[in-house]
């Protein structure tokens, strides 16, 4: 049962776990030049240090969410963290590109198992309304700040110790969160069903081939065409299999939840900006165009991180008491677009003009739109399906990031020119703003307003 007066301890533990898992999406970004040099990685290979994690993270989130429903939040959370922490050790000690990328992929699997449990713990502990809005605002802000904090931590550790430290730091941190996980609700089911393992394999394979197809589409080669065809076929097989499965990863009745479907489609688009591309591209602008060190580049993300967190935790919940979620989403997306068009239209000239100004605007927009997105994508869901809904939301985020990075990387011309990529991201956010406005004008989201 949902507790009406819950303590804030489960929120603190869930947020700490989510912070660490999301941090690892971007913690290697600032270290990529050192990793590429140290392991003699080719330009086309280095992006897979980021994409490998994001891809398996996205591919396993649906099964991770369903496991939390079937086997219990606490048990699944701890199991995922154990796998994540062990893979971090292997990656930190890797002596080749292949081992590092493989370790990052296993890290993503562990994160996929643990991450949905963090949001499930929140949605099954705090009732819908202002209390859950504040809890989700904190969880969402932590998820966003994790990306910025990853670049800061990664930069400092790379400069002070080595790129290996950005992965090995997960050993003590993971152990601490695992011990604290006793505060999470068990969520135990007395008659657990068998998860759809074959469905999880199909979904992971589909995401992998789909991302490769997007990243290679610009080449118009035979392999690129084959990848596109394979992705379409796998996607069709996956959909048919899930429709016929007696225990699908995402219960069929959830597709009738209009708020959940609309919310997750927008989460997918927003993830293409906030989950990976913006952090990676700004990293290369600071280190390449502006000549900053890894530590300086990491600290350069402090304004974006702080503004996003403050707006997400304080301003977004306050606005949601008076405005419908899609109204706030539309405004936040429009502000984010303005911040992204700034670096798209101006050549890098200095930190204030090239990084600080856009970061403040992007942080305001991102802080506003991501909290209501999480709310609409999880509203109206029964407690027994909370894990599946959490898995779907996180899948949309991570898939958006992986596809966004794959699609936009060719626009950077070998990570040397970022104006077109930022312009494309701005265009995506304009589309999100227009879509949210159209939904709001139909008056379909007033029920999700925080009270």
From TrEMBL:
Keywords: Cell membrane, Membrane, Transmembrane, Transmembrane helix, Transport
Main localization category: membrane
Annotated membrane topology: Multi-pass membrane protein
Record bears the keyword Transport: yes
Gene Ontology, cellular component aspect: plasma membrane
Major facilitator superfamily (MFS) profile domain location: 10-444
InterPro entries according to UniProt: MFS (IPR011701), MFS_dom (IPR020846), MFS_trans_sf (IPR036259)
Gene Ontology MF term list: transmembrane transporter activity
Protein name: Putative drug resistance transporter
Organism in which the protein naturally occurs: Gordonia amarae NBRC 15530
